[in-house]
Design brief:
The chain is α/β, with parallel strands linked by helices and 440 residues long. It has 3 domains: 261 residues, Type I PLP-dependent aspartate aminotransferase-like (Major domain) (Aspartate Aminotransferase, domain 2); 89 residues, Aspartate Aminotransferase, domain 1, CATH 3.90.1150.10; 66 residues, Ornithine Decarboxylase, Chain A, domain 4, CATH 3.90.100.10. The chain is built from 15 helices and 15 strands. Strands 1-7-6-5-4-2-3 form a 7-stranded mixed sheet. Helix 12 packs across helix 13.
Length: 440
């Protein structure tokens, strides 16, 4: 059995000299350097949504590496996996309402529109300084679940979130399972967590399903993602694969599939060694930032989330990085976020504290205006309604159609179907969003 069956097959095919009387149109020739390895579902190459050959073998290798009951590849990012998870939850026969933390990615909102699922939101307790954060307390979750007249079809959390905040997944999973409710996790930013000691990956902490964007924190091509299942039974895998097919292209990229396949070439021990070395680099950068007067927020180990200073907001911090030949993952008024992997060199990591220098003032303190969504229409009704785009300043009282969210972080401030309140409009404008789609 090969550790990389997809890559082995494509490499052999590229070297065979076979005349390609099939798609793609470049016929294996071109100047990008990738064409020879860019194929379609030819004989022997298997088929992603009916996998019973090299793709299935590779997925089993991946599941073994990550400790999942089963793993299913996506060549369309975690968004495809999220759509599949919501579809599976809403069609399981336990109703169509999910209980979800409010900092969900807009892909979750669109998935609910497609599945005609409704959402009961969990909001952050106390003051919050970012729409990206929504810590869920296990006691609050237990009380919420116990108070619901009907149990939700699933609990859905994002962990790590865009700022690197991590949920108490072990505690949350215990609460969910004690009440017979499955836990689904958007782990798009945390694939590497499997290789910490102990593992902090959702599948190790009790999640029933989760998605990993392998391309975000592992050496894979953009679009490489995986849906993990705790239940690896043939029926569970068949149902999940059908949900993935429902929401995926019939022409998945074999370049992306090969990059997923190649991740299985390393052992868990080798990954753990690489992750440990990168954590040490991140810790050193964190230490130097603190010595220079900056505050870094609690986050997953390979993310540096730096709080803005009174006289230097996150956008200015990002500009300082660019002047030093570095680009951050995300910046807003209150934060700078840098995502690291072991592919970064020590010099690149230490360029962050060098670029920022001494903090010009105290850490910036800001609290978001309190807001709670008021649902007027279902998510599906709002997303598929006739809409118009108007200034946010004129939107108070109107109903949000498509959620307005920049990417990154793609966390909607107002959800589709909700009435836009004065507080929500102020928050939109504070985040630099000046227009919004509303139902006609």
């Amino acid at each position: 059995m090969s550790a990389t069956p997809i890559a082995d097959f494509v490499r052999a095919y590229a070297a065979s000299g076979t005349a390609r009387q099939h798609m793609p149109g470049h016929k294996g020739r071109g100047d990008t350097g990738a064409e020879a390895f860019d194929i379609t579902e030819i004989a022997g190459a298997d088929a992603l949504y009916e996998a019973n050959g090299i793709i299935r073998e590779s997925e089993r290798n991946y599941a073994a590496l990550f400790g999942a009951g089963a793993s299913i590849y996506s060549a369309e990012g975690s968004s495809q996996c999220i759509r599949a998870m919501v579809h599976l939850a809403a069609s399981c026969g336990r109703g169509r309402t999910l209980l979800a933390a409010r900092n969900a990615h807009k892909a979750f909102i669109y998935a609910c529109a497609l599945a005609d699922a409704s959402v009961r939101w969990l909001y952050p307790e106390g003051d919050s300084d970012s729409v990206c954060a929504c810590p869920v307390n296990r006691q609050t979750l237990a009380m919420t679940l116990d108070a619901m007249p009907e149990k939700p079809c699933a609990v859905y959390l994002t962990s790590p979130d865009y700022l690197g905040g991590m949920q108490d997944l072990k505690g949350v999973a215990e609460v969910c399972h004690a009440r017979g409710v499955p836990l689904m996790v958007d782990n798009a930013h945390g694939a590497y967590l499997r290789f910490l000691s102990p593992s902090l990956h959702p599948m190790a902490l009790g999640a029933d399903m989760c998605c990993d964007s392998a391309h975000k924190t592992l050496p894979a091509l953009t679009g490489a993602a995986v849906l993990h299942l705790r239940d690896g039974s043939e029926e569970s895998v068949r149902t999940a694969r059908a949900a993935m097919a429902l929401h995926g292209s019939t022409s998945p990229s074999y370049l992306i599939l090969q990059s997923l396949d190649r991740l299985c070439a390393l052992t868990a021990d080798a990954y753990a060694k690489n992750v440990s070395a990168c954590c040490a680099m991140a810790d050193e950068a964190r230490k130097r930032l603190w010595q220079n007067g900056w505050t870094t927020l609690p986050s997953d180990p390979l993310r540096l989330t730096v709080q803005a200073a009174d006289r230097m907001d996150g956008f200015a911090m990002a500009r300082a990085l660019r002047r030093h030949g570095a680009e951050c993952e995300y910046a807003d008024r209150g934060h700078l976020v840098c995502m690291l992997t072991w592919q970064n060199t020590p010099e690149e990591v230490l360029r962050i504290p060098q670029a920022l220098g001494r903090a010009p003032g105290r850490p910036q303190k800001r609290a978001l205006p309190p807001f709670r969504g008021e649902a007027v229409l279902s998510i599906r009704e709002a997303v598929f309604a006739k809409d118009e785009v108007i200034p946010v300043s004129s939107a108070v009282g109107r109903v949000c159609a498509s959620p307005t969210a920049s990417c990154p972080p793609a966390v909607p401030i107002v959800c589709a179907g909700e009435r836009i309140t004065r507080e929500a409009a102020a928050l939109l404008e504070a985040e630099g969003i000046n227009t919004i789609s509303v139902v006609r």
